[in-house]
Known about the structure:
Helix content: 25-40%
Shape: globular
Largest sheet: 7 strands, mixed
Radius of gyration: 16 Å
Strand content: 25-35%
Oligomer: single chain
Distance between the termini: 49 Å
Number of strands: 7
Structural class: alpha+beta
Amino acid sequence: MTAQDNAAATAAPLIRPAAEADLGAVAAIYAHYVDHTVVTFDETPPPVSFWRSRLDDLTARGLPFLVAEEAGGRIAGYAYASPWRPKPAYRHSVENSVYLSPERTGRGLGAALMEALVDDCSRAGVHRMIAVVADSGTAGAGPAASLAGSGTAGAGPAASLALHRRLGFAEAGRLTSVGRKHGLWLDTVLLQLDLGPGRGPGGEESAH
């Protein structure tokens, strides 16, 4: 790591809305976790065009897609909230996703992205935020037993669950052996966070 890299890593990153120019870095970060870990159940890294479509879709829905930009313009991580399920009655609920560059884990950046994502979702009128944490049940599995699609990719499942609980998430249940990747049967732990009454994408108020 160069002196410039060290300076960028120690300075507080700027958390801001993602732009199209960021999507190459987003794709590269995600590809690492697809290829080398079980934090996502994807097995083939999606191209930049996939991320362009996702950014366009979330923007149209009024949902946040954030990046953490370090000094010098390097993207160190990203976070977004996507619809929890496609059926319309789920419109007040989202699933969180947070991924960090492998060199930027363990420094509090995941928590900063999560907090910003929660704040933006609350302002957008979201009622429930859901996290899905993958757990291989294998002690010492390290990053391979981290998050599936939410939380701070790169931390172990215990640290990821602790982060969610610290932010107010409550555990809602566990699905056992629902995925298989890299020779491991994988559980998923579901957690949820109450963000308030919720308005929905069209401004409709929901009962709390």
